[in-house]
């Protein structure tokens, strides 16, 4: 990530193995170098990677922040200290814990969008339950087949509900932190800081 930043790329891709907290910690580091959060999603084998996309912030204060960080951490990437993190670790320093927690909520909210069911997904899921029931009728009694299909449908319903509740809690935390809820071109809900626009607009993301 620091090599991408050193090349002053307009877009920096972060893909740590593991938790959203690690992704958020690295995103916080990128912000200190004048980048701003763009989006996050799961990728890789069995969706094991959390991919975060950061955009270079063109605002003058972002360049001031970048210059101050480079001055304070001249050996970052060469064994030196990294802004906001404990030396040699992805654990946030006390003063960065709050900012990393907010980024973790942003990352988690966007990542969970892949698993939030819309009407089409729900219809397909319940249709699959009906197909399962029909297949079970071939070699099981009607009672067993229907019971199995209903059990699977209940599990799917519970999963949809739990995901929606968790995402709703995150949305409230982001709103309380001053973020604004918007809809992107696909109609998905996103959260932006006041004054920010979605990727593809002139400000603050690269076109």
Description:
- The protein has 207 residues and is α+β, with helices and mostly antiparallel strands.
- 48% of the residues lie in helices and 14% in strands.
- The protein has 6 helices and 5 strands, in the order H-E-H-E-E-H-H-H-H-E-E.
- The chain has helices spanning 2-6, 20-32, 60-72, 97-112, 119-136, 142-176; strands at 11-14, 35-43, 49-56, 180-183, 189-192.
- Helix 2 crosses helix 4 and helix 4 (97-112) packs antiparallel against helix 6.
- The chain starts with a helix and ends in a 15-residue tail after the last strand.
- Mean pLDDT is 84; it is low at 201-207.
Question: Would you summarize the structure shown here?
Answer:
It is built from 6 helices and 5 strands. Helix content is 48%, strand content 14%.
What is the makeup of the main sheet? Answer: 3 strands, antiparallel
Q: Helical stretch count?
A: 6
CA gyration radius, whole angstroms: 21 Å
How would you describe the shape?
elongated
Q: How many strand segments?
A: 5
**Average pLDDT taken over every residue:** 84
Strand order of the largest sheet: 1-3-2
Strand content: 5-15%
Distance separating the two termini: 21 Å
Structural class: alpha+beta
Low-confidence stretches: 201-207
How helical, in percent, are the residues?
40-55%
Order of helices and strands: HEHEEHHHHEE
Protein name: Integral membrane protein
Organism: Streptomyces galilaeus
Keywords: Membrane, Transmembrane, Transmembrane helix
Transmembrane segments: 123-139, 145-164
């Amino acid at each position: 990530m620091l090599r991408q930043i050193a090349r002053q790329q307009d877009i920096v891709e972060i893909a740590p193995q593991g938790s959203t907290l690690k992704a958020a910690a690295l995103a916080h580091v990128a912000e200190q170098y004048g980048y701003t959060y763009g989006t996050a999603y799961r990728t890789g084998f069995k969706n094991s990677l959390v991919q975060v996309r950061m955009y270079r912030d063109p605002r003058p204060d972002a360049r001031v922040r970048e210059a101050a960080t480079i001055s304070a951490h001249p050996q970052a990437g060469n064994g030196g200290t990294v802004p906001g993190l404990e030396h040699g670790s992805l654990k946030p320093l006390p003063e960065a814990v709050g900012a990393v927690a907010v980024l973790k909520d942003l990352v988690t909210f966007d990542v969970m969008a892949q698993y939030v069911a819309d009407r089409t997904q729900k219809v397909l899921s319940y249709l699959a339950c009906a197909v399962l029931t029909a297949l079970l009728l071939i070699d099981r009694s009607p009672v067993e087949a229907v019971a199995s299909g209903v059990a699977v449908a209940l599990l799917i319903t519970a999963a949809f509900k739990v995901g929606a509740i968790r995402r709703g809690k995150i949305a409230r935390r982001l709103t309380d932190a001053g973020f604004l809820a918007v809809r992107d071109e696909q109609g998905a809900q996103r959260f932006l800081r006041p004054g920010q626009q979605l990727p593809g607009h002139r400000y603050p993301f690269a076109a």
